[in-house]
Amino acid sequence: MPTLTVEGFAPVEVPSGKRLVLAIEQDAKVDVLHACGGNARCTTCRVEFIEGEPSRMTAAEQQVLTAKGLSGVRLSCQMLCDHDMTVRAISRLEGSGRPDPGRTPEPFITPPPVWL
Ligand code: FES
């Protein structure tokens, strides 16, 4: 089982292949946002990688990051936690002014991933 560390929180073991956004929320217990429900539309699930950044990316992630001019961040809804990762949660419910983090993402990557 891979170890997920969210900076400032206790490391946790995650079922291999779990969607990262869900692992952050459900396993690490960090209030990451996912305003679009994990569909690569909102970018509120973005994290900064400290270690273990995946080399592959979905076409949907690349498209929305480019469209919003974002760099140095990755979308946690567009990847699986299948190896040890250390991330910084930079987009959290706390302090966001939002009423909730957004609809719970599906357990699989949506839209169906096209890997680059
Ligand atoms: S882009 Fe909206 S939850 Fe990931």
Write a structural description.
This protein has helices spanning 20-27, 59-67; strands spanning 3-6, 12-13, 18-19, 46-51, 74-75, 80-81, 85-89. With 116 residues, the protein is of the alpha+beta class. Strands 2-1-7-4-5 form a five-stranded mixed beta sheet, covered by helices on one side. Strands 3-6 form a two-stranded antiparallel sheet. The two termini are 25 Å apart. The relative contact order is 0.30. FE2/S2 (inorganic) cluster binds at residues 34-36, 38-45, 75, 77.
Spans where pLDDT lies below 50 across 5 or more residues: none
Overall structural class, as computed from helix and strand content, comes to: alpha+beta
Ligands in the model, by name, code or SMILES, are: FE2/S2 (inorganic) cluster
Mean pLDDT: 98
Number of strands: 7
Given the structure, what is the number of helices?
2
Topology order in helix (H) and strand (E) letters: EEEHEHEEE
What form results from the Cα inertia axes? Answer: globular
Assembly context of the chains: single chain
Gyration radius, in Å: 13 Å
Can you summarize the main beta sheet?
5 strands, mixed
Distance between the termini: 25 Å
Q: Give the strand content.
A: 15-25%
Strand order within the widest beta sheet = 2-1-7-4-5
Helix content: 10-25%
What descriptors fit this protein?
single chain; 116 residues; alpha+beta; five-stranded mixed sheet; two-stranded antiparallel ribbon; binds FE2/S2 (inorganic) cluster
Write the layout of secondary structure elements.
Layout (H helix, E strand, L loop, with lengths): L2 E4 L5 E2 L4 E2 H8 L18 E6 L7 H9 L6 E2 L4 E2 L3 E5 L27
Parallel strand pairs: 1-7
Antiparallel strand pairs: 1-2, 3-6, 4-5, 4-7
The structure holds FE2/S2 (inorganic) cluster.
